[in-house]
Amino acid sequence: MSSGTIILVLALLLGLQPVTTDLYLPALPAITSGFGAPMSQAQLTLSALVLAFGFSQMIWGPLSDRYGRRPILLIGMTAYVLASVGSAFSLTMEHLIGWRIVQGLAMGAGVVIARSIVRDLFDHLEGARVMSKGLTGLGIFACLSAPVGGVITELLGWRAALLVLAIFGAVGLVTVVWRLEETLAHRNPQAMNPKVMIRNWVTIIRSKSFWAFALLATTSYGGLFTFLASSSFVYIEVLGLSQMQYGLIMMSSSLAYIAGTFVCRWLLKRTSLRKTIKVGGYISLTAGSTQGLLVLGGVESIAAVIIPWWFYMIGHGIHQPCGQSGAVSPFPQMAGAASALSGLVMMIVAFGMGLWLGVSLASVAGESRTALPMTNGIWFWSLLLAAVALKLIQRTHTENS
C-alpha cells in the first residue's frame, strides 16, 4: 500500500471516535428534552459508549492478532453501521443507550486495529510520525463533526444527526474493502488461547514503558473527555450559545488539535521524543491551570474558557501520537493486545469521569449554573498529565536514537 492509502485508512478508522462522540453533542440537549430524560441518563449515551469501546478492545486486539487485521475490521465496521442506524431510530432513551453501547463495541475494532497497523508497518519513531498524520485526519473529522451536527440538528432534528454516523461508517467500510491490504505478516495462532492471552497481558502490564505512554495518552484524553461530556451544557446552557455557535466552538477546538499534531511532527524532526513530550507537558499544564484559575476566580466568559482550551488541545495533539504509538511499540508480536489494554485504561477513566460529570452538572443545574465542573475537571487532568509528561516519561523512557 502507498503511504497515502495508509494515512487515509488510519484517518477514517481513528476518526470513528471523534465522529461518534462529537457529532451528536450539539444534539444532546435536544435528545435529553425530547425523551424527557434526566441529565445523568443523557450522560450515559456518551459514558456507556466509551466504556463499551474500552472493553471491546480487549477482544478485538487478540482477535486481530489471531485472524489478521482486515477480516476483524470488516466485522467491526459492519456492526458499527448497523448500530448507527439503530440509534437513529431509537424510541426511548434506554434504546438509544443500548444502541450506543453496541456502537462503542463495534468502534473498538476500528481504533484498536488502526494502532496495530502502525506497529505492523513502522518502528517507534516513524510510527509516532505516521500516527501524527493519521491523527491530523482525525482532527479534520472532529473539526467538521460538531458544526455539521449542529446544523443538521437545527434543520432536520437529532435523529438525522445520528444517521450521519451510519453514513460515515459506511464510507469507512467501503474504503477498507476497496483499499486495505492485510498488514499482519505473521498471525499468532495462540493469540486467543486464554492462557496465552493472560500471559501476554501480564507481560504488557509489567512493562514500565507501556504504562508511561499509556498514561500519557490516558491523562491527555481525560481532559478532552471532560470537555466533550460537559461542553454542550456549559456553552449552550451556561454561556448562552446556540447549537450552531457551539458547533463552531467545537470546530475551533479541533483546529487547535490539528495544529498540535503539526507541532508534534515539527518537534520530532528537530529533537528527541522525550523533549517533544516535555514541551507538550508544559503547554498542557499552563493551559489547564490558566483556565481553572480564571473560572475559579469568577471570570466565566467565553474567552476565559475557550482560549486556554485551545492551548490544551495543542498539547493533546502532541501527546496522543506519542502516547498511542509508544504504548504498543515494545510489543511487535502483541501489538493488538497492547493497543487494546491501552485503550481500555483510557476508556475506564473516561467512563468514571462521565459519571462524575453527570452528577456534578445536575447539581449545578437551574439558577446556579456554572462552568466549574468542566474547568475543574480539565485542570485536574492537566496536573496529572504534566506529572506523566514531565516526570514519568522522562524517568522510564530511554531513547533508541
Q: How do you describe this structure in short?
A:
With 401 residues, the protein is an all-alpha fold. The chain has helices spanning 3-22, 28-35, 39-67, 69-88, 93-121, 124-156, 158-179, 194-205, 208-238, 243-270, 273-296, 302-328, 335-363, 372-396.
Overall SS class: mainly alpha
Corresponding CATH superfamily: MFS general substrate transporter like domains
Which percent range describes the beta-strand content? Answer: under 5%
* Number of alpha- plus pi-helical segments: 14
What is the CATH first-level class name? Mainly Alpha
| SSE ordering | HHHHHHHHHHHHHH
Rg, nearest Å: 20 Å
The major pleated sheet works out as: none
Shape: globular
CATH architecture: Up-down Bundle
* Helical content (DSSP H or I, runs of 4+): over 70%
Q: Mind explaining what this structure looks like?
A:
The protein has 401 residues and is mostly helical. It has one domain (3-396): MFS general substrate transporter like domains (Growth Hormone, Chain: A, Up-down Bundle). Helix content is 84%, strand content 0%. It contains 14 helices and no strands. The chain is globular. The two termini are 27 Å apart.
Give the topology.
Layout: H1 3-22, H2 28-35, H3 39-67, H4 69-88, H5 93-121, H6 124-156, H7 158-179, H8 194-205, H9 208-238, H10 243-270, H11 273-296, H12 302-328, H13 335-363, H14 372-396
Helix pairs in contact: 1-5, 1-6, 1-7, 3-4, 3-5, 3-13, 4-5, 4-7, 5-6, 5-13, 6-7, 6-10, 6-12, 9-12, 9-13, 9-14, 10-12, 11-12, 11-14
